[in-house]
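Tokens in:
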């Protein structure tokens, strides 16, 4: 009698654990590129553009280019909304001279095993 209750509890825990894992895996990720122009931009080494920061309405961000230089840039409320809606935006760095291109990171298709 107790075995089926234990199985039921373990099954419920497994379902909840899977649901929690899928929620965190669904967080949007952003591809950030930097260069002298948007068309010549290269993927940034580091950046602090996250879904959480965008949802908080944070407007100041930083990015580290491949050459090791760090730059700051600002996002307007409209740009934040556009990013969260899946659009790509291009902004100037605070220091000027560089363009930062931000957009949704394309997810790789899951392998089916075939």
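Residues out:
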């Amino acid at each position: 009698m107790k075995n089926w209750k234990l199985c039921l509890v373990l099954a419920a825990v497994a379902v909840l654990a899977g649901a929690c894992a899928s929620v965190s895996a669904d967080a949007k990720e952003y591809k950030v590129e930097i260069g002298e122009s948007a068309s010549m931009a290269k993927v940034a080494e580091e950046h602090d553009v996250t879904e959480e920061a965008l949802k908080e309405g944070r407007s100041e961000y930083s990015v580290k280019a491949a050459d090791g230089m760090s730059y700051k840039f600002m996002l307007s409320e409209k740009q934040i909304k556009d990013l969260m809606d899946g659009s790509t935006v291009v902004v100037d760095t605070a220091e000027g001279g560089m363009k930062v291109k931000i957009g949704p990171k394309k997810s790789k298709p899951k392998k089916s095993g075939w």
